[in-house]
Description:
The chain has helices at about 20-25, 55-65, 85-95, 120-130, 140-150, 160-170, 215-230, 235-255, 265-275, and strands spanning about 5-15, 30-40, 50-55, 75, 100-105, 110, 115, 135, 175-180, 190-195, 200-205. By secondary structure, the protein is α/β, with parallel strands linked by helices. The strands form two sheets. It has a nine-stranded mixed sheet, sandwiched between helices. Strand 1, helix 1 (about 20-25) and strand 2 form a beta-alpha-beta unit.
Amino acid sequence: MKRILTIQDISCIGRCSLTVALPILSTMGHETAILPTAVLSTHTMFSGVTLRDLTEDLLPIAAHWKKEHFTFDAIYTGYLSSPKQISIVKEYFRDFAREGVLRIVDPVMGDNGKLYTGFDPSFAGQMAGLCKEADLILPNLTEASYLLRQDYRPEGYCEADIQKILRDLCRLGAKKAVLTGVSFHEKELGAMSYDSVSDTFDAYFTERIPVSYHGTGDCFASCLAGAILQGKSMAESLRLACDFIAECLRCTMADPERRNYGVNFEEALPLLMQTR
Ligand code: PXL
């Protein structure tokens, strides 16, 4: 069994970050260690959010783990709330990502062309510094535009445009990049990857399901990280993560009680059980 450490916040309600990463990675058969960076009453799309910042706890936790000689097969980071947390994650990479430990960075910062509440372009610069140290980064188009300091365009990309963005993302320093929210046809949506070592691209698309829910990116990143850790190729991992998200969206749409946040990923977990 592989052991993965995931570093992100706990949003108590809203189905994102650790509350989706933990069940998804566990379902995929991985021992999942967590490092909660903050506890929020909900994710930041609600107003009146409470936040308990756990930055002060992160280094003492690392010191204890070092003493116990804990090791991981992969470290996967998601939402981080400050430049200080980014620099602490770099310390975790130094201390716990020896040769062969996969460093996966989802540079969670924004969507639909905008940064999430609490972030500014200088934070994106810090996040680019973390991406430099990663083996694999997983931005959406909005995050890619902030990482690369380029204008955001929601659509109208051809394959060569996306390939250029992916090459530029790897020039930040990461070995591989996966770009989500990629579409070359109105009826399809998916993701494309680039491996800068082998200079190869992979892509996978599903039917476009015309809804958008919060936390979908976290579900995608968790599933992709889980699949790579299962030893699947990038092409297989992209396919599984895109199919899983499409199923999450279908389940959410079919739920008459659906709330305006998070996806019903719980109903799509059986798809992942079969992958172990
Ligand atoms: O889904 C990304 C995410 C994670 N954590 C928190 C968030 C968001 C997006 O808004 O606010 C706290």
